[in-house]
Write a structure and sequence with these properties.
Elements (H helix, E strand, L loop, with lengths): L1 H22 L5 E6 L5 E9 L2 E6 L5 E9 L2 E4 L7 E9 L2 E2 L9 E9 L2 E6 L5 E9 L2 E6 L1
Parallel strand pairs: 1-3, 2-4, 3-5, 4-6, 5-7, 6-8, 8-10, 9-11
Length: 145
Amino acid sequence: MFAKSFKTLVLATLIGATALPALATGGHSVVVQQNGWNNQVGGGQSGHRQRLTVIQNGGSNIAVATQDGRRNDAAIGQSGWNNTATTDQWGRRNTVGVAQMGNNNAADVGQYGRNNVAAVVQLGDNNSASATQTGVGNVIAIVQH
């Protein structure tokens, strides 16, 4: 399963790297893979060279990501059911993580400024994490079991 998902992700990334710059202003990159059912993805990008990757293998997962600025990265995972991940970034070179392998987890991450890093990993069920960073060079890491 992982090998198939990895190959699909690599193929989508290659296609996106060649096709999206021609279609999107500023060279944005978006990769989405949803294998379950009733998964939802939303958000928007403005600015230059924003990157987003969403993979939701379970069902009824929701991922919403907004990016405004330059060279912001976001990657959302979510493997179980009924997980919600929201990321909001504006500024430059901000990086977000989020994984959530269990069920009924919620993560909300906001970054406003430059060179901020956040990572959220929630392995079990019914976890909730919220983080907001403003300024330059902030780092957050949240791990819950």
